[in-house]
Automatic annotation (TrEMBL), chains A, B:
<keyword id="KW-0285">Flavoprotein</keyword>
<dbReference type="InterPro" id="IPR013785">
    <property type="entry name" value="Aldolase_TIM"/>
</dbReference>
<keyword id="KW-0560">Oxidoreductase</keyword>
<feature type="region of interest" description="Disordered">
    <location>
        <begin position="276"/>
        <end position="296"/>
    </location>
</feature>
<keyword id="KW-0288">FMN</keyword>
<protein>
    <submittedName>
        <fullName>Nitronate monooxygenase family protein</fullName>
    </submittedName>
</protein>
<dbReference type="InterPro" id="IPR004136">
    <property type="entry name" value="NMO"/>
</dbReference>
<dbReference type="GO" id="GO:0004497">
    <property type="term" value="F:monooxygenase activity"/>
</dbReference>
<dbReference type="Pfam" id="PF03060">
    <property type="entry name" value="NMO"/>
</dbReference>
<keyword id="KW-0503">Monooxygenase</keyword>
């Protein structure tokens, strides 16, 4: 394909793949797109290890890293996280009623409680919200820029000047996700090179304006800065639609979750393959901010009458992350209650994700379907 | 344009325009699209008059009628509406606390209460929910089929067998709006000839699945039945995007509300021109079912702590319609509080509606922009 974004990033197709799984990142990059590793769940050491693995598997082809840098976080919690006690202090900041609700939930669904002492020791390996502090994000940015990355992205809010400055100094383009035209304007003012306009149908943290409306609005607002369309996109028809809207390419996240490479737990993958587009919900129950995810007993209960309500970010992550790890672990051994509770971030396009394919094949299928969609449009206008 | 839908309906462009305004319907039909008159607010006599006017202004070109036939309505209210007392009995079915809340709202915003005796006498002219009963809808269907219409549409739920049978006997294709693939399947089983897949970003009654996801899902579900894309579509780029998704055309409602011909009250039109895509909300406060509309003091107050909550359909319409008529009347004479309360059904694409144009011009602009979008896609694939 011939687009400015393809030339600028040295890629064949303007298809950006967000994934927490290094195998997906490498597979998409090797297939001609640009894989972007979601780094939020990693400690700096673990991220270093992942990026080294990717470097070894992409033969110099471009890939990127996405860091979650919230523009607004619970400062007292952040302070606690930075203080002497570290994560212990942050854990202590979670109100008792939230732990009680969580324990009752585990009991109701017949899920054994995790071994808290053991969990405490291994907690560092998975982050538990610590990386969402500005200190945590800075460490991840430094690790990322130590590698030959082709893009660094900020998933939430305007990237801090520090991030933009460091990236520019390293010659790495900065991308940022936005859910409104107003945010896009602010991001461009902050020095962002590539805007990802993400509609409310997207998985994970998301706003309420749909991709169909948001993309043309953002394109007009930030021109000539290139815009990638995101939110609900899992097929080549949708890629063609996005580019008809004026986008310079697409940013997909959900579609990789049911690929062969994905680390998605098998019981969650099965739920996704069976789900229709109605089976997601925008809920604060996993991170403290509205994030679209599979509807499950977990989201139902947190919205239910017995719920104390979700906490802010990052405290809700501390409550939810450890719980979900235990739920997934128990679910894999067949526990029915745990399977009811299990869920994951995914967009409404989960309804279009009905087969397991290698990530490479997803790229090829999208490009083929893109070409078919363009042919169909040409037949309509009589240009063929 | 060359599409099956164009051939089948005898139109130049597969652009269907839903409007309550006969001038818009005629203008779009005369410009090569297909205007569809929203008939829900009309009595049978008034509808007869409107359709006669359209017949006189389209020179035999095709147009359609849209009737709101709810698949599920409050039966006790419907019964009351059919009974001896008619609308009086239906009015009596509205709980006192809802009237009290409404009166307090008027007082809070400095809007004088309407003359209820006078309103009662003129009420018939505007319907006040009476047409939403099955009896009311049947009368509108009969009037519609007495004219040379090219399409009859059901805006809400599966059309009753009576409607499908009457339309087929008259040789008129039946369209139905759906918000999920499952509903689309049911509509096709009921004999519907054309599916309008309407995303959650649409104005008026709407579901939660976005146009970008819903359209390909519905297209795949009902093939080879043609599907029109609806929800958030106000530009030619979006029309091209919809057809890249597999739609056979588009169904637009919101975009006509700011045209020269539209009967939209001037203060509401001004709000729409100024609004961004963030300024709508899906609320039950006007009809009793979730319907997207401009965010205003009206929607805020009905969601607020003092609100008794919206009633079901059609009771909430009885409360809201008369109130909105008074609000609009008073707002036109400059009352600030009334202007804060005033709103109207509109999709998120209100953010893209920034100029007043003749409806004809909107059609021509969309077709031109459609062609530009296809050219842009050809440049990307290298087909030009």
């Amino acid at each position: 394909m011939r687009t400015e974004v393809c030339e600028r990033f040295g890629i064949e197709f303007p298809l950006f793949a967000f994934s927490h799984c290094r195998d997906v990142v490498a597979a998409v990059t090797n297939a001609g797109g640009l894989g972007v590793l979601g780094a939020v769940a990693y400690t700096p050491d673990r991220l270093e290890e992942e990026l080294r693995w990717i470097d070894d598997h992409v033969g110099g082809r471009p890939y990127g890293v996405d860091v979650l840098v919230p523009s607004k976080i619970d400062e007292s919690a952040e302070k606690a996280g930075r203080g002497e006690g570290g994560l212990d202090t942050m854990l202590a900041a979670v109100p008792q009623e939230h732990w009680t609700f969580l324990f009752q939930l585990f009991e109701k669904y017949g899920v054994p409680l995790p071994d808290f002492e053991k969990a405490k020791k291994t907690r560092d390996a998975k982050g538990a919200g610590a990386q969402v502090t500005s200190q945590g994000a800075t460490a991840l940015i430094d690790v990322s820029l130590g590698h030959p990355i082709g893009l660094i992205a900020s998933a939430l809010g305007t990237p801090p000047p520090l991030m933009v400055d460091k990236a520019k100094a390293a010659g790495v383009p900065v991308a940022a996700l936005v859910g409104t035209a107003e945010h896009a304007r602010r991001q461009v003012a902050a020095g962002v090179d590539l805007i990802v306009a993400q509609g409310g149908e997207a998985g994970g943290h998301t706003g309420e304006i749909s991709t169909m409306v948001l993309v043309p609005e953002v394109v007009d607002t930030v021109a000539p800065i290139p815009v990638l369309a995101a939110g609900g996109i899992a097929t080549g028809r949708q890629m063609a639609a996005s580019m008809a809207l004026g986008a310079s390419g697409v940013w997909c996240g959900s579609v990789w979750l049911t690929t062969e490479e994905a680390e998605t737990p098998p019981h969650v993958k099965a739920k996704m393959l069976a789900a229709t587009s109605r089976d997601t919900v925008r809920s604060r129950s996993r991170t403290g901010k509205p994030a679209r995810q599979l509807k499950s007993a977990w989201t139902d209960e947190w919205e239910g009458p017995a719920s104390p309500g979700a906490l802010g970010m990052p405290l809700q992550m501390i409550v939810a992350e450890g719980a979900m790890r235990q739920i997934n672990k128990v679910a894999e051994s067949g526990n029915e209650g745990a399977r009811e509770l299990a869920n994951y971030f995914v967009g409404q396009c989960v309804g279009l994700m009905n087969t397991v394919r290698p990530a490479r094949q997803v790229v090829y299928d999208m490009i083929e379907e893109f070409a078919e969609a363009v042919e169909r449009l040409n037949a309509i206008t009589g240009a063929d």
